[in-house]
Structures
1.
Amino acid sequence: MKHLHAGKVRDLYEIDGDLLLVASDRVSVYDVSLPTPIPDKGALLTQLSVWWFNRLSSIVPNHLISATEVPEQFARRAIRCKPLNMMKVECIARGYLAGLGLREYQRDGTVSGVPLPSGLTEGSRLPEPIFTPTTKESDTGHDEFITFEDVVRQEGKEVAEKLRDLTIEIYSKGAEHAAKNGIIIADTKFEFGWDEDSVLTLGDEVLTSDSSRFWPADEWEPGRPQHAFDKQFVRDWSLTTGWDKTPPGPAIPDEIVKATRERYTEVYECITGERWMG
Amino acid sequence: MPKTQIYEVHKLVDDVATLLAERGLTPKPGGQKADDQVKAAADLLSSLGIVPGLAPEHALDLDGHKSYSFRMHGD
């Protein structure tokens, strides 16, 4: 087993020609890994992602080979997957108005350049989901939003249209299922790549609390900040500490660790309908 | 439908650097201009009708989806 890359939250290994994507219990906010782990976070996100991969496989092939044939020390928090030639585009779908998208809308009436009707407010549901791609690697070191036309230039028209349509279809199917089970998926990010047969394939992790914005449906109320089921909870807490968003991050107190773990667990149980055996 | 042609952008940068070195030049791949080199390689591939790709270790965001978090949440 060869260690390819160590991230703040996940690690990547090569094993017998496959990739091993290992999630840790670490949590990173404002690009800083906090010193306190959230117990079971890595396993919860991995198992949720596996559940989605299986559910969404009728829409698009995915990179998952096995969630069980992994080294014992990584059990439940690792997946063995196909190495893909990854796209340079990150595919974001938004169904609701929040975060930086809200700020752009209030300023320009658009989100990532996509015009939206007037009268929307914080947390509003968009008339229909929108595709707001970003590109990897930029001068700023962060992704930058690009237009659909940029994706056409970079990937070609046929591939760009497929990426857009798949992103909206996967999001819509996922959001519909989550909504029936009490969770709003406000937005999410997908990553695609090409397998060895040049088949467009869904990669990375899917519709998890780290790659999505989750809200409890029964508390949704446009016009105010929404109760967060995702990493936003830790983000919000960290700002109450007076932390300046530079390393080292603050240690997370026990009650916040417990509440965060409960949120991750609740998301898993609501979406999958299965009890988490932690 | 013809098979999609894909090429890894970092590999193209290395290929070009090797070619130039063979021709007596001293290219400097990587370093502070690495992002520019990758972007240029991707642009070249696109203009040649080849889809630019990234190896998983270059593409997967293992830092907690920091790019998504930055763009969506302002991290």
2.
Amino acid sequence: MLRRVAHELFWMGRYLERADCIARFLFAQRRLALEVGYLAHSPRAWTDLVLTYLGDGTELEVPDDPDEVVAIAVLSKDAPSSLLRCVERAHENARSARASISRETYESVHRLFLLLRQMSGAVGATPAGAMPPVEWSFALQRIGEACRVVSGYLADTVVRDDIWQVLHAGRHLERALQTLRTVRCCAVNGEGRPWRPGEPIDPVAWGGLLRSCSAYEAYRKVYRGPVEPQAVLELLLFYPAFPRSLRGAVGLLRENLVALRLLEAGWRPSPVDLRFGRLQLKVAGSGLDGVLRDGLFGFLDEALVDLAALGSALDEVFLTDELHPPDTGDQ
Amino acid sequence: MHLGGPFEGYVVLGFDEAFEAQSGGLRPRPHYRPVVEAFSRYAPDVLARLAQTIDLLLREQGITFTLLGHGEGLERTLPLDPFPRVVPASEWRRLEAGLVQRVRALNAFVHDVYHEARILEAGVVPRDVVYTSSQYRREVRGITPPGGVYVHIAGIDLVRDEDGTYYVLEDNVRVPSGVSYVLENRTILAAVLPHLLRSLPVRPVRDYPDRLVSLLRTLVEVDDPRVVVLTPGVYNSAYFEHAFLAREMGIDLVEGRDLVVEDEAVYLRTLRGLERVDVIYRRIDDEFLDPLVFRSDSLLGVPGLFFAYRRGRVAIANAIGTGIADDKAIYPYVPAMIRFYLGEDPILPNVPTESPEEAAPRLRRRPQAYVIKPVDRSGGYGVTLLRLLPEEERRRAIEVALAEPRRWIVQRLMELSTHPTLCGHHLRPRRVDLRPFVLTGRAGSWVLPGGLTRVALPEGSYIVNSSQGGGTKDTWVIEARNPDAPSGRP
């Protein structure tokens, strides 16, 4: 596979996963907040939660109306982490790699892109084509489903070759990042501040945390009890059989990188080996007790930094210029 | 036959593909009868829905082209008219023979001008027309590509005049585009007009990618050669087609920056290191291919590619230098080429074409009967229909052409045949041309049955190019018995 195409596919995987995670987060958080009356009582707290999650450092004018916050999160052209921007970028990547992915995969990304464009009123042109504000739950569900249609086509129509591995390396790296970010902004105590062991939790925020990672039912099945902070953290960070847990996603990422011979391939460790090793040490070598003892948020922040560094090391691999022709003896 | 429904008010002005005038009205030509009957039965709202469905399919599948000159490119769908063009088998066989003959002559001409130049020696084509051409590549003199084939892929534009005679309007033998729309149009019409398509023995077009990749693989004598499509990138107007063909052929779509030349061999920069490339189906003009030899400011090409080509270590399709055969100033000499190289009379005539100097007296006397075209542009850019200009601008256009006669040709304005085309709820006559595609390898030529029918959508327009408001039609070559049908099928 071409290096340039690998780079496009890696980022296509990342942006698709990011879009999927943002859609899940907004859908779950909004529905839950509406159900428990949270939006009516503390709209500002909810707004802050969404903006913390998106946390892209942009100076956005924050409206008080929660629906307008959702509109920014979904359709803003200025917020780099808006769903629209993620999908536009995934679409650009897919277009550049169009000849390498299956027709169905490209078309499903293209339809996701058209859906977002249509919602933003950019396509269809008439103001009537824009999104009625009361329809956000429905819209978020449609976006989330469109993301999962892409996943379905990827799963069913792409050969398990380098293309598949690169795309999924991007997805799994991003998934680990997004799970960490979700935990980071939802693991709060009753006063909305970072939770510490022994403190009472905000049950809405923790329930929303599980739902944002599509982990609510997995939690019920695994732990068969009420929402306990330690158990939630164990599931989302260290439970290997749950594909959206940090350990689960990093395990899948490792499989992708090994298959691509980007990991454990040479006699001398590469920058990717070093970065991954650091991350792995943290993820596989830690247990929840140790993390809670040393500080949950310190762990989350360090793991986020390690993941970002691994992402940069992979980018370097795709963009590097030091290549030599194979010694085939046919010169 | 009474023409009602969506044909109500249909008027034939010159030569219409589907209808002929008869006393008191119009009669569908025999090969159009089933299609006309089917469309007659459609209620106006059904026709409108048909058009909407086609548009939706084109948009959702991202079947687009990119308009030039809009920053990073504006993606547009190429409108597909639901009413197919029908070509009867007998007519097609004549076209096929004419196209193959023409490509044989063009190929012989390209070989000749870069080797013995016999045709220049004999005075059949003037030397100065060849040597002043911006498409003449002195760098390839003496280089013979594999099998002596230069023009592997050709798109020859055909038009019909008032009496229905087919003429060749221009030869596209550098990087002709449009074949992806032929294949996609068929897929879409199969979805929206299944009954009609099924009821007629239409020759399929689906095997074009297989034929093309098989041809490309024969260009080198290597076991399991690595073939790639070279594209200028996502902002090129034909990027959709480049990606489409690469995917359909199961080969890599590469940009110049994905390739590197080492020791006069071409390599791909892959995730596992450099991998050798044997054949390049390039969709980039000669001058951008190699900045060391051609345009030094080209960012699209591959430094050193030309040297690998010259050493025969990579094959390029179409070969470097074929542009000399589609320079519009060379075009008037193609019938003479056919006689010179093949000793045959041309099966398909040229549109009467002259240099501005030759045409000057007639051009001044009856300017409205002529078109002035730049010799080195495509896509309909720079074409001047004198009939449509006010007096003053008309005079200026003629003076410009006469001032630099090597840069322009003068052609008789062809009325172009018209074809029923869906406009709102009605079918109306619109001008069409036809671009068939010819593949040529060591073993000979093959013509894709049909080709891309382009239609000038605005009323009265003569310009069919996609960049100038044109649309397309599916083209159905109808056999009495379908020779391509799998055996066992009735």
3.
Amino acid sequence: MNKALGSLAAVAAIALLGALLGAPAAIWIAYTGFAALLIGLSWRVVRWSLAPVPFRIPTVCGQEKSLPWIRASWLESPPNAAAAAARMAIEVLTFRSLFRGTRSRLEQGPRLIYREAKWLWLAALTFHWSLLVILVRHLRLFVEPAPKLAVALDRLDGFFQVSAPVFYWTDAVVLVALLYLLQRRFRDPQVRYISLFTDYFALFLLLAIAISGIWMRYVARTDAVAVKQFAIGLTTLAPVVPKSVGAWFYAHLALVSTLAGYLPFSKLVHMGGVFLSPTRNLANNNRSKRHVNPWNYPVKVHTYEEWEDEFRDKMEAAGLPVEKR
Amino acid sequence: MEFRKGTFCYSALARNLNYLGLPNAREWQPFDQDWKLPPDWKRIVLDGMKERLEKYRSFRLFMDICVRCGACADKCHFYLGSGDPKNMPVLRAELMRSVYRRYFTAAGRILGSLAGARDLTEDVIKEWFYYFYQCTECRRCSVFCPYGIDTAEITMIGRELLNLIGCNINWVLEPAANCFRTGNHLGVQPHGFKDSVDFAVDELAELTGVRVEASINRKGAEVLFIVPSADYFGTPHYYTFLGYLALLHEIGLDYTFSAYASEGGNFGLFNSHEMIKRLNAKVYAEAKRLGVKWILGGECGHMWRVLHQYMDTMNGPADFLEKPVSPVTGTRFENARSTKMVHICEFTADLIHEGKLKLDPSRNDRWRVTFHDSCNPARAVGLLEEPRYILRSVCNHFYEMPENTIREQTFCCGSGSGLGTDENFEMRMRGGLPRANAVRYVRERHGVNLLACICAIDKATLPPLLEYWVPGVEVAGVHELLGNALILRGQKERTTDLRGEPLEVTRPSGSPEAAHA
């Protein structure tokens, strides 16, 4: 509980600090955050890429391609790089592995019972997709004229056309999904046990970003034109201090900048890392195509000659063929 | 750290470390207060970590990207059986990750425990030892992880690091030392190996009336056949060995065993990557010396992880061998065209499919059979259908265990990766609970009384497990059942199966288990 409270307090402090410091500081906070994101994430990815993949170790989840009359599971046991890419795409786009989720229960006997458990999958999937839509939607604030994709998504997201300003369903979904993930950390004893300060911090940070954004749009009615001017100023490296955007905006900006700067140095780098995971991005063609280990080095082995030298007499007595007599 | 009897393995004997040239050979036990670590143990471990972070992308990545979502938490058989939270895969990895953060990340150096970092102390080493030797490297958790984080990878590297300061277990190091010296884990010397094979040939002649030939170290044979050593020394493995002999005789395969490469299993996998390579080297070396065309491998679990995922990379390329072709059916094993090593289930499934074998499945009618996917053939190779195809062809009563306990989601026997020793008995029974639980399900539903599998460790450790949790279910290899069903040319009338037990052609109606199903 202390971890959760501590991280909540940290997030609140960031928001408050952002709101209090206001405009000139916001510029620096934003630039620092996004510089850290760019440099940090590249550094992380480069670091991973520099480490070789000495062995081909896919976790195979289906029938291998072997005899022609046995139906192979090309997605779960990809026979080549293209199929492995498809497997990765399904993993990244639909969270295939999480979809396997089950939940176990130990009953008297002892007897283990399993049931399907898809809530984590659903919450994770809807959260990530909503976040992506929200991010792309935000592009219309940074680019003039707004990119077509951003506009189209904006329309789609505002499909229900209820309330003014138009209600985005991703706003609701992202909140619900985050709240589900948060309550899970509190209530599920296993997840609670494994949760660290940083796990709560990431959730509270995202929640605070969502809430401040929603508040600006539906309640505080922050001046979107002013925000856009400021955002374009930032992207063109000619930031102007905006008027009339209010404290909620600065809080929102400080939180987002924190998320950006924090991402490369936290578990949130999973976003880049998943693509490099050797158990998922390699084909199960180990016996048909040789994988090369760049640092393969000679090792001390027990040669046949050494072996025969030790056992020659016994081998001859037993009538086994030998090389040297 | 409390080392309670029954839940850990004893330390490796100094002589085994010395034989293999491993560091810090000494007398010690995990329950001792003083583990007699080398004075600069901490530097050794941290340097070892640094080296491996640079050599294995898997290690660095898996240290970085876990989000602690908990999807893996209850997927580990040791967690399910022990309830010990540190047996959740995520926490097993956190034991290492916390140290990684403290010494190798900026956040951990600055924020310490707030970032989930902790100092490396002797207690941490003890905890590593306890939990990295309480993981069977079965890779089930990795199936459920959204990033494919593979605890086996972390455990393997954890054991490598422990190995650098001499903290290893005898049940791994003694087989490894034996294997290095004699060619097999059991330490059977060449003349002993020959005795075993000769004995099996005699026994098969007695059971079937057919005398087969089984050559050893014969140059110029077409195929080198390598099996786990338990097949010719352990029970019930031995009946599978008889099955191989009968099969290979019947189809007239020109093959030889090797006394030098008299082990396909590789306990190096449970020690270090270097040891895998040292023990595996003899396979290709011997194939080359004998001048065979390709290699056939017997029923074994971790052996096939090494042969499939490591051998070609470590000791290949096997350009002196030919692409494997079945001389009986002409089938080319394209999936093994680089390593040149074929799994016997692939080989046999092809024979059956091409109609080359005469089978009488009713000889297995006293068995109601289920199939346990062994971790590595399933999750490393993807060998799921071949053994099932064979089983369906050689026995009339075959039943699957529940879906989430077989195939890629199969549960480990609880004794793999060198933990199948008697001093670790309690933990083995706990770890094997999920497997036994699924067996009990099919026993109650279908009256299953035989579990078939293709792993030597399974065959050694599942009998006591099932006796403990599900009495009345026996364990057999797939090729034992094949050997029972196989009609040999020139055989006498078969009155017993390969176990020497009478054949019951029809099953007595109303077996107690079946009646309740």
